[in-house]
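Lecture notes, part 5. Sequence design as translation. It can be helpful to think of inverse folding as translation between two languages: the language of shapes and the language of residues. The source text, in structure tokens, appears below.
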């Protein structure tokens, strides 16, 4: 069975269906070697229907290009939530639970050697993280058939440029994992 985006685009499992412009399912090919999982679409993503196309996504993919040598098109990119929470608020537990089967279906189809988990919401959801990002980032762990690794959300790096260097170091770990996979 291959992942079918059509039911995701028609999803009404939570109240975000009433306020979204687009369902942001994901971009790229599910057999990409790097799977990138963020938190939720923001305003730009909701308008365009694609993940990480706004300012923070542009920073994230500039860093991935520089440190890992992969373009956005070389990755499969998605989020824990497929619809934008109004005002970009943090997803609720009910929203995450409603959306979880879609992410699980994508992960089941993914052929990625490495899963890069971006931001604490995604780290909690995908890696079961319980500690702050400062304690967990850059440390690979087994995640099904792939290695899973968390890094800071690029929105945090836009607010605090020192985080860019931390993300670069985390992405060099991703590059090493991909090189040895
Ligand atoms: N932030 C995210 O976590 N995901 C996006 O797609 C855009 C911004």
């Amino acid at each position: 069975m291959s992942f079918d985006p059509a039911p995701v685009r028609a999803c009404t499992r939570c109240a975000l269906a009433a306020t979204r412009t687009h369902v942001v399912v994901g971009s790229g090919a599910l057999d990409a070697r790097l799977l990138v999982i963020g938190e939720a679409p923001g305003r730009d993503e909701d308008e365009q229907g694609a993940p990480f196309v706004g300012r923070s996504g542009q920073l994230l993919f500039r860093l991935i290009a520089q440190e890992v040598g992969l373009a956005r098109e070389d990755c499969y990119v998605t989020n824990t939530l497929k619809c934008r929470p109004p005002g970009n608020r943090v997803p609720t537990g009910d929203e995450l639970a409603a959306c979880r089967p879609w992410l699980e279906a994508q992960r089941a189809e993914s052929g990625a050697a490495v899963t890069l988990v971006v931001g604490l919401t995604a780290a909690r959801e995908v890696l079961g993280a319980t500690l702050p990002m400062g304690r967990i980032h850059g440390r690979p762990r087994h995640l099904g058939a792939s290695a899973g690794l968390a890094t800071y959300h690029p929105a945090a790096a836009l607010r605090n440029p020192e985080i860019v260097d931390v993300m670069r170091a985390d992405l060099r770990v991703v590059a090493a994992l991909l090189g040895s996979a």
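The translated text above is only one of many valid answers, since several sequences can fold into similar shapes. The mean pLDDT is 97.
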